[in-house]
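User: Reviewer 2 asked us to show a designed sequence for the structure in our supplementary figure. I'm pasting the structure tokens here. Could you produce the per-position amino acids so we can include them in the response letter?
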């Protein structure tokens, strides 16, 4: 459906290429405009709101820059940065095409291209563009901002934008260190209760004796040491949001007590006979998987139904692609400001070493590693030697849930083969049993 509404501009000095592309696309999209002269780009883009530009890399020296495609790519992005640009290149220009991806190109095709691959590439870019245009306008506090542009995080942001204005109970699932507490704060900050209290309780750390007194409160004299009345966390959150972290770690007995409060929407402090009405929005989080929560020997199903009107799964860092670079910039700037240092840059070697690490501790581990790097760095360009992982970090398993992530496996395999072949792409592709083009696409996919 999105393809039907697409507007595409094709620029190539080969008339046969223009004819072939126009015949291929004219029945599939709303508008196809073709031109052999890149000097008309300015006029075309000012007149029509194009979704995709298909651009040749060479134009017989019309622009004396040494690379016409790169020049016109920059011009297009200056005119409208939201336009997706697909470069058409010959085999000899692949290295140049890879470089141009860093300048803002969205994809590249090698002549002769396959029609199905071209259509798939256009479809993907249009979906991404439409998704970006409808990106949720979430509000984050500076200190709790969630950084991410990957597709998996965009899905999380979309879900937050939908559930935040409601009073639905939310269950946040994810490995340790993925930022479940930030997700909970984002839901509250974008809810109708944003001006009311946000109360967080790590229920997994509460002993059986503290569980009821902390959550439900108590009256003076209710037990030895109760020297005054104390409000429980449920009552403190009245009108606002109560966030119960590590909900998967509470006992079955504690689950029964919690279920009763949620069903009745009332809490009775210890030592009191008067129930207090509750008006709260409940958010829970756990690092347990859905299979563990479905085990009735560990967790009551009736409680799961109460707390899980909607679930949000926060992806581990290893599944977030280029977000690792984006997050790194965020933390480096944050800690440079905190420790009164000049702004830092990351060297290519630093970034390469960063991406090669599995980060089983996820974003939390990345945060601590970067803080350490900023503190210990001698200059303002972070080098590979500034990135030091502790023995615990180096020894941790790459996959926290004892599962094998295929993308991580593929990425690590590619890195190992390229290293074994001393960076030779042709030999590496042959060793992997794929073409050079396919290998370049994977290098771009994993931001290597």
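Assistant: Here is a per-position design you can include in the supplement:
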């Amino acid at each position: 459906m999105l393809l039907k509404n697409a507007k595409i501009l094709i620029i190539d000095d080969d008339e046969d290429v223009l004819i072939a592309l126009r015949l291929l696309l004219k029945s599939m999209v709303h508008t196809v405009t073709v031109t052999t002269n890149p000097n008309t780009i300015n006029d075309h883009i000012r007149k029509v709101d194009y979704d995709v530009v298909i651009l040749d890399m060479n134009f017989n020296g019309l622009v004396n820059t040494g690379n016409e495609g790169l020049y016109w790519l920059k011009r297009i992005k200056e005119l409208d940065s939201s336009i997706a640009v697909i470069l058409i290149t010959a085999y000899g220009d692949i290295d140049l095409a890879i470089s141009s991806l860093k300048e803002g190109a969205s994809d590249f095709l090698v002549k002769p291209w396959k029609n199905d691959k071209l259509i798939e590439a256009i479809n993907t870019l249009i979906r991404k563009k439409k998704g970006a245009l409808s990106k949720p306008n979430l509000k984050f506090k500076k200190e709790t901002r969630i950084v991410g542009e990957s597709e998996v995080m965009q899905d999380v942001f979309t879900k937050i934008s939908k559930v935040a204005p409601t009073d639905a109970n939310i269950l946040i699932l994810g490995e340790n260190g993925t930022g479940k507490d930030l997700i909970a704060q984002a839901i509250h900050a974008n809810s109708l209760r944003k001006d009311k209290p946000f109360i967080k309780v790590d229920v997994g750390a509460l002993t059986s004796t503290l569980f009821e007194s902390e959550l439900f409160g108590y009256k003076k004299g209710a037990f030895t040491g109760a020297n005054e009345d104390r409000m429980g966390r449920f009552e403190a959150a009245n009108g606002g949001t109560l966030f119960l972290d590590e909900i998967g770690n509470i006992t079955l007995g504690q689950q029964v007590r919690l279920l009763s409060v949620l069903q009745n929407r009332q809490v009775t402090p210890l030592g009191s006979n008067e129930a207090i009405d509750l008006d709260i929005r409940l958010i829970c989080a756990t690092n347990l998987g859905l299979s563990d929560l479905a085990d009735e020997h560990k967790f009551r199903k009736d409680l799961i139904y109460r707390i899980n009107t909607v679930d949000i799964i926060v992806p581990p860092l290893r599944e977030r692609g280029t977000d690792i670079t984006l997050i790194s910039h965020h933390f480096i700037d944050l800690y440079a400001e905190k420790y009164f240092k000049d702004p830092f840059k990351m060297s290519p070697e630093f970034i390469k070493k960063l991406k090669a690490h599995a980060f089983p501790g996820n974003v939390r581990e990345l945060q601590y590693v970067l803080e350490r790097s900023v503190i210990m760095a001698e200059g303002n360009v972070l080098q590979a030697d500034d990135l030091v992982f502790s023995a615990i970090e180096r020894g941790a398993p790459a996959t926290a849930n004892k599962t094998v992530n295929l993308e991580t496996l593929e990425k690590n395999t590619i890195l190992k083969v390229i290293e074994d072949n001393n960076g030779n792409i042709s030999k590496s592709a042959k060793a992997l049993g794929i073409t050079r083009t396919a290998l370049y696409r994977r290098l771009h996919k994993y931001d290597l």
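For the response letter, you might also mention the following. The chain has 19 helices and 16 strands. Residues 395-404 have pLDDT under 50 and may be disordered.
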